[in-house]
């Protein structure tokens, strides 16, 4: 069945999948979590491009009409390559996140992400393209990824790590915080508690869903079937199922273990 492909290094991309399913209930989705090689944020740009291409080619092989790169690190390094190599539309998470944050900020935007995403400067560039006068504060927060992968969404350790990472941004009076990794919305409650309720947290999931829905309407390619999801993982399907069900709020049944290396 032709569908929409979504890939991430692990469970984080489920935040994007959840928004996509809500906006596009008639579409079938293929989700690939590259759990054998998570996290991507500690890898080199060249390695991330290699992994992203392998993931994309696998999803194309099962039959997709649109590809969502639900990984900030892969979007930072591999998006241009994927768009060049693939014959289907490809969307990442960087530009939509910037487009969500800029209209609502009072002038100080924080960006948190993996080391690779922050070092790439991708969010900084996109924000400055839209509004050059905005102050942007960036911070690598790599420990958030394993905390999310372990299902420690709101845990004393998570709160402690969040305080360690985010105190400086809070002190700088950041008013809008971009969650620059698709794992991070899983930790929204802990992050919001540390930053304060007046700080807007931004992730790109809903923006991506709106963009794809509009594109499919314009191209007359919107499906009205019963929808559904097929999941693929490269390691630990039991762990993926446990954490994924906590976030998705439903049972995950159709998980296939694959080797794409």
Q: Any overview of this molecule?
A:
- The chain is of the alpha/beta class and 261 residues long.
- It folds into 2 domains: 3-93 and 205-257, Rossmann fold; 95-202, Rossmann fold, CATH 3.40.50.1860.
- It has 11 helices and 10 strands.
- The strands form 2 sheets. Strands 4-3-1-2-9-10 form a 6-stranded parallel sheet, with helices on both faces. A 4-stranded parallel sheet has the order 6-5-7-8, sandwiched between helices.
- Helix 1 (14-23) links the parallel strand 1 (3-8) and strand 2.
- Helix 1 crosses helix 10 (205-218), helix 2 crosses helix 3 (72-85) and helix 8 (156-171) packs across helix 9 (188-195).
- The longest helix has 18 residues, at 45-62.
- The relative contact order is 0.20.
- The mean pLDDT is 94.
| Computed CA radius of gyration, to the nearest angstrom | 17 Å
Count the domains.
2
Shape: globular
Low-confidence stretches: none
Please outline the major beta sheet.
6 strands, parallel
Element-by-element helix/strand order: EHEHEHEHEHHEHHEHEHEHE
Strand content: 15-25%
Report, as a whole number of angstroms, the end-to-end distance.
24 Å
Structural class comes to: alpha/beta
The CATH architecture of the largest domain is 3-Layer(aba) Sandwich
At CATH level 3, the topology of the largest domain is: Rossmann fold
The percentage helix is 40-55%
**Count of helix runs:** 11
Average pLDDT, rounded to a whole number, is 94
CATH top level class name of the largest domain: Alpha Beta
Strand order of the largest sheet: 4-3-1-2-9-10
SS elements, strand count: 10
